[in-house]
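Protocol step 4 of 5: obtain the predicted structure for the target chain.
Materials: sequence only (see below). No template structures provided, no constraints applied. The aim of this step is simply to have a reference model before the mutagenesis design in step 5. Sequence pasted as it appears in the construct record:
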Amino acid sequence: MIKDALFKVDTYMNEVIHNEEIPGACISVGLGKNNIFQKFYGYQQLMPAKIKMRMDTVFDLASLTKVVSTWPGVMMLIQDRKISLSDRIGDFYRCKLSESVKAISIKNLLTHTSGLSESTFLRRYGYDKESILLKLFLENTVYPRETQVAYSNKGFFILGEIIETVTGQALDDYVSKSIWKPLGMNHTCYNPADSDNIAATEYIKERKLIKKGIVHDENAEFIGGVSGHAGVFSNIHDLTLFCQMVVSKDSELLQQSIIEESFQNYTKGMNENRGLAWKLNYDTSYRNCVAEHLGYTGTGIWIDPVEGMYVILLTNRVHPTRENINIQNIRRNIKQLIFGK
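Step 4 output (C-alpha cells):
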C-alpha cells in the first residue's frame, strides 16, 4: 500500500511542478529510522535567474520553527527539570505584567490556549525584543485561558524569550548546541551566512529585493531574525534526522515519555485538537492520529506517532509572491495520498 501511495505522490508532485503551481519542492517520507522516499522537484529560484532545486537546498521553514526549534528547546528544559508545563509567565519575569498575562502557563503557550490575540504585529510594541516584551506583557488577553485554541505567534515569541531567560543563552545558540548539533543537523540555523543554496522566497517591491537567506516573516526579521515563532532555515536531510528522532522511540536526546506527552490532546472539547506545539488530526482513515505543523512559506511536517511514520514537504510557494495559494491544495493532497482522508 505504501509503495502505491509513494508512486502517486511522485506522479502528483511532477504534475504540480509541470503546471507551475509552485516553483519547487523537496519531500521525504520515512518509517522509524528508515527513510523510504526522498526526492526533489523544480526550481529553488525563478527570478532574476532560474536555479534548479537540489536535494540539499535550504528552505525558510517559517512556522515550522515552532516545532523544530522552540518545541524541542522547551521540552529539553522540562526534561532537565528546569521548567514545567505548569510554570507561568509571572514565574519568570519581575517586570510589570497584566494579571491575565501573568497567569499564562507554558502549557497554554504550547497549546495556543493562552488567550493572546492571533495578531503578530510586533512593531507596534517597540523596536527591540526587550521593549516589545515589556509592552506585550502589559496587554490583557482577548479571551479566557483554556477556553479555545487561537493560533498565536506571540505565544511562541514569548516561549523563545523564556528559553533565553532560563538558559542565559541566545535562543539560536541554545537550540543549536542542545538539539541540532547532537542530531547532526548541520545545515539548520537562524540567519544563514551563505545564501547560495537557499530557496528564494518573496520579491519585495519596495526594497527591490528577492528574499533569499533573509527570513520571510516580517516580525522575525524586525527583531533580528531569531524568534521562537519563525526564523529557522533547514533542508530535507536535517529535517529527516529531526523526524527520525521524534518517531524512533529510542532517542538519546528527548526521552520517549517527553515526546509521547507532546502528542496527547490537551484541548478536548475546544475548537481544535492540540498537543504541545503540534496540531492533532483524527480524521485519517489509515491512522488513528496524525500530528502536523505547517509553515507560511510552503513547508509542512506530518507525524504519525503510533506507526512511526513521518512526511516532510518543503516548498518555496511564496516565490515570487505570497499571492500563490496553491499550497493549500498541495499539502492537503499529499497528506491524503500518504495517510488517507
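Step 4 remarks: The two ends are 15 Å apart (CA to CA). The longest strand covers residues 34-45.
Proceed to step 5.
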